[in-house]
């Protein structure tokens, strides 16, 4: 079975499964939703089987590699593979997307089109983490734009067209920088190639690296998202349905973080040494600004959306730390937030289905009528505020310790960054617990209690949240469940990043002049 094309099958199965959908005999959507869920379960089972039987944990190199010539004149190859950076996110994608299929159970408007788009996104999202050809990466990166646009514009809220248009403008505009940088790297030097490993091995001049790094950074800053290119996300979340929420928070944001690690840091390490302090500063801005903004939001969806932006700031700090622990924490934070963000946004959708409002001012006393929802809301919120024993705590602690112990920065710089990031961490429980108090505890909104059918969570919803909480708590109690998947890869990448800063080997710091790395231009 070692020669079986595992990743190609995993990517193409859900995409191929969309072809029979228009011809399925189905009037009320029940057949279609079961069909999509079964396809999702089969694909996720293939992911787990391939990981358990074909993936070697201690190997930092590319595994499950497949390469087929596709368009020979353009040197475009179907090249896919998985290493420690991509494998945990491939597993996360299969897990979250399959649960999103189950979360979409109440969808009755155009069910065939809805599940067609969900299955197409399933394959496209896995492809983003697996492809090893730069031009192919750009193509699959663009593949998810149209499904998300349609899912927002057809099944979204009152301002769905505005949110969908803003999403497509931001992300498509950012994608142009990926194409420009990919073409520049492919044609740089004496050879023309789109193979990622060959591109990474080229000897780029430092000025070229800086330009390429900046181009990639703009594109991935939109997707992560990073201030000030983040404004599409609250609007998109504000109008999305629960399953689309889960895909946006659980997977799409992780594409930006993954690409920053894979391309910016992995392919352009010298430029990363110069940009790293900027990433750290932007990470702090993300944490504090988004936490303060979330604190001020009265709309439930927008409050959770800004909370997601805040948590993504830790990925930037970990990426800029130049330590094994910091980078490991950044990857773990992406996995952790994928699970926690999906759980919170599913709860938002389930609550809206019952209360028909998103405004905290119009809620109150809901917990008395919906005891199961009360318990699930509380548990998911505690996970988001990084309660010890849950995955968010471990990930954020690793980033904090990794950055504070870094020898790449001066002590005053580290003190300021850790202090400001800690302020954001302190704000998180304040706005989340105040949200729970207003929404669940009271005072009661009698009009809401008397006129809305506040039915408690059904077994399907309890199962989805329980499925998300099991890995959240499991990782919190035993982080090695995930870290062992990528440790070998992140240690290798950190060593390469440190080699790009000669001063690290001499005990000096680079953060006193954030935009300069000593002697890096001489490399």
Automatic annotation (TrEMBL):
Domain of life: Bacteria
Positions of transmembrane segments: 6-25, 32-51, 85-106, 113-130, 136-155, 167-189, 204-222, 242-261, 273-292, 304-322, 334-353, 374-395, 415-436
Membrane topology of this protein: Multi-pass membrane protein
Major enzyme class: translocase
Keyword set includes Repressor: no
InterPro entries: NADH_Q_OxRdtase_chain4, NADH_Q_OxRdtase_chainM/4, NADH_UbQ_OxRdtase, ND/Mrp_TM
GO CC term (a single one): plasma membrane-derived thylakoid membrane
GO molecular function: NADH dehydrogenase (ubiquinone) activity; NADH dehydrogenase activity; oxidoreductase activity, acting on NAD(P)H, quinone or similar compound as acceptor; ubiquinone binding
Main location: membrane
Record's keyword terms, sorted: Membrane, NAD, NADP, Plastoquinone, Quinone, Thylakoid, Translocase, Transmembrane, Transmembrane helix
Reaction catalyzed: a plastoquinone + NADPH + (n+1) H(+)(in) = a plastoquinol + NADP(+) + n H(+)(out); a plastoquinone + NADH + (n+1) H(+)(in) = a plastoquinol + NAD(+) + n H(+)(out)
GO terms for biological process, alphabetical: ATP synthesis coupled electron transport; electron transport coupled proton transport
Location relative to the cell: Cellular thylakoid membrane; Endomembrane system; Membrane
Domain NADH:quinone oxidoreductase/Mrp antiporter transmembrane, residue spans: 132-410
One Pfam family linked to the record: Proton_antipo_M
EC number: 7.1.1.-
Role played: NDH-1 shuttles electrons from NAD(P)H, via FMN and iron-sulfur (Fe-S) centers, to quinones in the respiratory chain. The immediate electron acceptor for the enzyme in this species is believed to be plastoquinone. Couples the redox reaction to proton translocation (for every two electrons transferred, four hydrogen ions are translocated across the cytoplasmic membrane), and thus conserves the redox energy in a proton gradient.
Family from the record: Belongs to the complex I subunit 4 family.
This protein's name: NAD(P)H-quinone oxidoreductase chain 4
Organism the protein comes from: Oxynema aestuarii AP17
